[in-house]
What does this fold into?
Amino acid sequence: MATQSAKPKWTELAVGTAITVPGSARQNRTGDWRSSRPIWNHEECIRCGVCVIFCPEGCIHFDQDQPGYPSADLEYCKGCGICAHECPTACITTQEEEE
Amino acid sequence: MEQRLGLEASIAIAEVVCRCDVDIVAAYPITPQTHVVEHLSELVADGELDAAFVPVESEHSAMSVCCGTAAVGARTFTSTAAQGLALMHEILFIASALRLPIVMAVANRSLSGPISIWNDHSDVMTERDVGWVQIFAENAQEAADLTIWSFRLAEDRRVSLPVMVNFDGFILTHTIEPMLMPDKEMVQAFLPPWEPLLKLDVDEPISMGPVGIPDIYTETKQVQQHLLTQAYGPIVETLNEFAQHFKRTYKPIETYRSDDAEVLLCTMGALSETAMEVVDRRRKQGQKVGLVRIRLWRPFPFEDLYRAVGNVPVLGVMDRAISFGGPVGPVASEIKAAFYHREQRPKIVEFIAGLGGRDVPLSDFGRMFDSLYTTGETGKIPAPTIIGLRE
Ligand code: SF4
Ligand code: SF4
It folds into this structure.
């Protein structure tokens, strides 16, 4: 895909639709078709990191502030619910995205 | 300099590919293309052609290797026929979408089943929409010339698309004909080194062939449609340059004694030469018949077709394949569509001939011309006719 803009005109595409800028996949926000999102209940969370490991998108990170709870980067989270399924304390619930 | 030789079209193609100084040949042998790749592997083994010969395990791999080598900027050639072309099918689209200027000689052969190694155009008609430039040769000289030209066109930076040179299986591949073989200096004076628009290079990394999400796919198809249509200009230009350099002229649509014709027959490929013989004989008998020969199949040369057909009242189209359950003749259906919106349009009569290597003798062309005259007299267009069908 062209790297100039997310929705280029056909005349703006790179030759052969090649990607000419390395690392440009970062520009793609792939979370926009998510239909639900994970919500954390920090009171139950034991910060074990299981959700971080199981997230197939690798989009769960511990927040930098103390004591540091996990949260999902919603620009990449697909709302699959695997984190909620795997959490040993069941402190993650999924909430439907509004239209 | 050129040398007059007697060569099969297959050997002639291999010899000019050698003179084009390709970097790589990746091919799988299949009848009737075999002599092309056999001879190229000999030329590589004998050290006459400094190229890598990749003896792949299938045509799918052959075209995949070709995509990879063209992507790094290597001048790439392959050749196939029939089932081999069908096995390449999915990769053909990728070669054109990625704008890889591969040159491929297709020794046209009928598709199985039943198993047939003989000539018709069912293989190439099935690959009509793959986004390649597609051109047809009528004899060994043309097959060799158009192969040289194909590299020049494919590598033209305004085009940068793959090119398919069609030459009829057996009729051309296995027939020794007199021809002029240019030497390497002459070929290379016409074909400068290729400067790719884009190539895979570890020092300047790019990704070729990424996903095209729904937001982008539509635009990529418009690019292909535009590029292939616009390739017409460079095609005519480079054919003219070829004519200046080699003194042999090729046009998108060729005609034969068509100027004052009462009826015209449209042909494609080697059988056009048989048809010319019949035109000469009929003309001697006082019948004003002529030919329209399609050389360039993609991009389709609409304006050239209109000029060639002119105001003739009856146009026959001889197809070498059947579109089953559809409009019967693939070439005829396109020509009908081309004329649909025109006020001045001929009555179009469809013939299917020469399927799976069935001979099309002079008398069959005679029958086609007779049918065109009958249509002219009665005004009735007959149903598509399979010439020589036993009923
Ligand atoms: S798996 Fe559950 S308990 Fe463990 S860190 Fe993630 S949210 Fe907290
Ligand atoms: S819902 Fe799926 S993608 Fe989103 S954070 Fe949880 S595991 Fe990752």
Q: What stands out?
A: Residues 5 and 12 of chain A are 9 Å apart (CA to CA). DSSP finds two helices and four strands in chain A. The beta strands of chain A are 36-40, 60-62, 70-72, 92-96. The helical segments of chain A are 50-54, 82-86.
